[in-house]
Design brief:
Elements: E1 48-51, H1 61-77, E2 80-85, H2 97-107, E3 117-118, H3 124-135, E4 139-142, H4 146-151, E5 191-194, E6 200-205, E7 209-214, H5 215-218, E8 223-225, H6 233-243, E9 248-252, H7 256-269, E10 276-280, E11 283-284, H8 300-305, H9 310-320, H10 332-338, E12 349-350, H11 353-361
Parallel strand pairs: 1-2, 2-3, 9-10, 11-12
Antiparallel strand pairs: 4-5, 5-8, 6-7
Length: 365
């Protein structure tokens, strides 16, 4: 049985989408001089970070390195670690991949406190957040297709996944758009977007330094609820980080721009604590693109099935993380003892044929 929908009423005609606290999403505490992350904007009893695998595929060497560094930072600095399975990506989610990801993280030697939080098991927190955004007049329904958005682009985009929304359905763009009582997450033909101002906002990233983005120019009014009847990533991650008390977010630097969107949502929703962000350089394939299926099978499970030991895999991740200059074997605890953000390279890492050969040379069969 579906959870009950919140009672969502249309906002008053003269209401502003942006409460005073939402006008300036610039935040995030600066890193300490030694290069280790510090707490977020609000003092907390204990720093909290999260491991958040997405079951749209098996963990590969690139995202395993990010999880390992996140875990190592937590161990070094005494952060609490929670686990969240981000399984709201509709048809891309592989039902068997959730447990596989958990098993792989445990096999690598990573640990966490408590039971995993599965996003798909309870949609009420996201619906409550959407109801609040609607009452504030901050979101609006959108029926545009990807093809329509692509056709409306005024300039080509290098990243096909980050098309800028031209504002076609934004209130005022269509004179005949009615104000009605709505049920969010029920209409498969309607997404929901949040109105963002045309202004720059920034934050201080621990690794990448000061960041500044104009969300409107970058992606426009972004989606907070999809046509699949699910909360979108940007909203879900904010709601979950807040309810799990996350103060330290460690992830790949392909999400640098997403942080400003998430901080914007923190401000409008009035959520806390606001986390400190640490964005890590990615692992790339030989073609200079992010490591993925197109570069062959780099899944941890595949190496494991071929007899590659966990110490050898972590040894390669250590080489990619500035822990060692050459190839060597070590476990997760040894990695955590030796890892230092100061010696982590600031440029992307490229997986080479030599790396692959060294891994397979360690096969036990």
């Amino acid at each position: 049985m579906d959870p009950p929908q919140p009672d969502i009423q249309p906002p008053p005609p003269d209401s502003s989408p942006y409460p005073d606290s939402a006008q300036a999403p610039s935040t995030g505490s600066a890193p300490d001089p030694a290069g280790s992350p510090t707490g977020g904007a609000n003092p907390v009893a204990q720093e909290v970070t999260r491991l958040a695998p997405s079951p749209t595929g098996a963990l590969h060497l690139g995202n395993a390195r990010t999880f390992l560094i996140n875990w190592a930072l937590a161990k070094r600095h005494g952060w609490k670690i929670v686990l969240r399975v981000e399984d709201l990506d509709g048809p891309r989610v592989d039902p068997e991949a959730s447990q596989a990801a958990i098993d792989t993280l445990a096999w690598l030697g990573l640990s966490w406190e408590g039971e995993p939080l599965y996003q798909s098991h309870d949609l009420i927190p996201y619906r409550d957040a959407l109801a609040k955004l609607y009452r504030l007049g901050a979101i609006y329904p959108c029926t545009c297709t990807r093809k329509e958005i692509l056709t409306a682009q005024s300039a080509p985009h290098e990243d096909e996944h980050e098309l800028r929304y031209p504002g076609t359905c934004r209130p005022g763009a269509q004179a005949d758009q009615p104000q009605t009582t709505v049920k969010i997450l029920e209409d498969s033909a309607t997404a929901w977007r949040i109105s963002v101002p045309d202004e720059s906002a920034g934050y201080e990233d621990v690794v990448c330094g000061p960041q500044r983005f104009n969300i409107q120019k970058q992606v426009g009014d972004f989606v907070v609820a999809s046509k699949m009847g699910l909360p979108a990533y940007q909203l879900a991650v904010v709601v979950d980080d807040a309810r799990q008390g996350v103060t330290q977010v460690v992830r790949g630097d392909d999400l640098l721009g997403s942080a400003c969107r998430q901080l914007f949502l923190y401000r409008i929703l009035g959520l806390s604590p606001i986390p400190t962000y640490t964005h890590l350089p990615l692992v790339l394939g030989p073609d200079g693109r992010r490591l993925a299926k197109r570069h062959g099978d780099t899944r941890i499970d595949t190496y494991r099935q071929r007899g590659v030991g966990v110490r050898r895999i972590i040894g390669l991740l250590a080489r990619w993380s500035g822990v060692s200059d050459g190839y060597s074997e070590l476990n997760a605890d040894e990695f955590a003892d030796r890892f230092d953000l100061e010696t982590l390279g600031r440029d992307p890492v490229t997986m080479t044929q030599e790396d692959e050969a060294w891994l397979l040379d360690g096969c036990s069969s």
